[in-house]
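Data availability (excerpt). All sequences and predicted token strings are deposited with the supplementary files. A representative entry, Cholesterol oxidase, is shown inline so that the format can be inspected without opening the archive.
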Amino acid sequence: MDRRDFVKGVGLAAAMVGLARVDSTPPVARADNFGPSPRTSLYRTLVPEIFAPLPDPADHVPAIVIGSGFGAAVTALRLSQSGTRVAVLERGSRWPSDPWRDIFAADTVPDGRGFWYRTSFTGVNRVPLAVDPFGGVLDVCSYPGMDVWRGACVGGGSVVFTGVFIEPEQRFFDHVFQGVVDYREMHDVYYPRVRQILRPSPIPEDIYNSVAFAHSRAWDGQVRAAGYLPQRNDGVWRWNIIRDELDGRSRPSATIGCSNLGNSNGAKFDLNQNYLRYAEATGYAGIYPGHRVDAISKEPGASGRYTVAVTKLAPTGEVLRTRTLTCDMLFLAAGSIGTSELLVRARATGALPDLNEHIGEGWGTNGDVALARPLTTLEVGTQGTPSASRILDEAGAPVALESWFVPGTTPLDTTILASLGIVLDDTRGRFVCDPTTDGRVELQWPPGGAVGYLERAREVNSNVACHCPPAFRAGLDADASFTSHPLGGAVIGRATDEYGRVRGYRNLYVMDGAAVPGSTGTVNPSLTISALAERNIEEIIRSGG
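Structure token line:
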């Protein structure tokens, strides 16, 4: 089977999904360049909660947290527990969960609920799909040579990731952080602190042995035949809900390859179910969906306050309001892209002229590579989402392969085994902004920057395929044209001090993946981002800033 057959098999059915027609509406101010989604009426019926009136934060709040992903949620909880009033600003919607409702778009046949104001999406299979423009949960930012996937909803990346929660090995951690962050402290204190709340665990045996995870067992069998020992991954999944899916007590979601666009039944233990909920329960934190932050600056005069320019958005893209908020402490946690954009733009426009030369630098993809091989067993299942296993190869540059899933749209899809490769790689890009234009921030990724780690991951995948029966020995393909793990742009110890305080300013902090130096050492970054935020916010609160 060649790459063309693979691409056709994975993507053809999804590419044929059509859009419904509805009457046009009068023009309004919008957050995008497209008209309103023709499916808006359908979405109002399916998910009325995201169309409810949006709350507004006060004009001045002691602390503002921009974003609601892992770093933001940790920050919001610990600040609120300390008695500090916090406003969490999130551009996306706050989506509900229910065991039977059709809340999120399916990975197999996506629609506007899946994507942040796009008319097309090109996924791992590289087949463009038409979608309707709507405020969906996944933002795909396209730059020359690299697409970046990022969350756009309350809960951020925790809603759209695949739940893998792994601590890096010390030698890889130290290679990345270069002594700025002490691994033993993270291992002994902050990784356990995050695990205590998010409760990651490996896939239980009864679920692993179900038909939905036949691909996981086949993946493990192939890597064992190639001489590797698969290690079980920890994941933040609610295994009893997955059992409900298997037993017919819930609408199928995680058991049929849904994850990248959300799990409607709450099978993924996302931040809405823990950190963010606990922060709100203190009475000191408010979460404000539909609030996109466009710019940050210092308030003129001696107040020391920060100003935050906000656009309030309906999920249809309609602009409801623009305003400027102020705060005493500003915590940037809008993800690597969002945080880097705000800082790079603020320096370029003179809003924060004292930001140093490291702002925008040190951005990496975590060495992400999507890989595929043929299935070599007769047992075919529905390719459940949770990643059961991983292997580590150190024959060259260290690379981990994790068992992955292929959302099934055709019978061929269920005969493919997917892997996520994560290579320890030092290739880095940078963000730049030309203030004479519209203030757009661009990623400058080195031409051919992914070639080295792409080939390293392909080498390991092909080694596994070579130990398969002769008819199945070719690895199908490898793709490093995108990342779902963007890291860097405001790197700790360079753009900030050792605890995320932005150099050149007081009470301005970076609390998310932008602080991570481009890689988390052959593992998914969510656990490290969360633990680093726990470490940094503890010191910020302890020291009074």
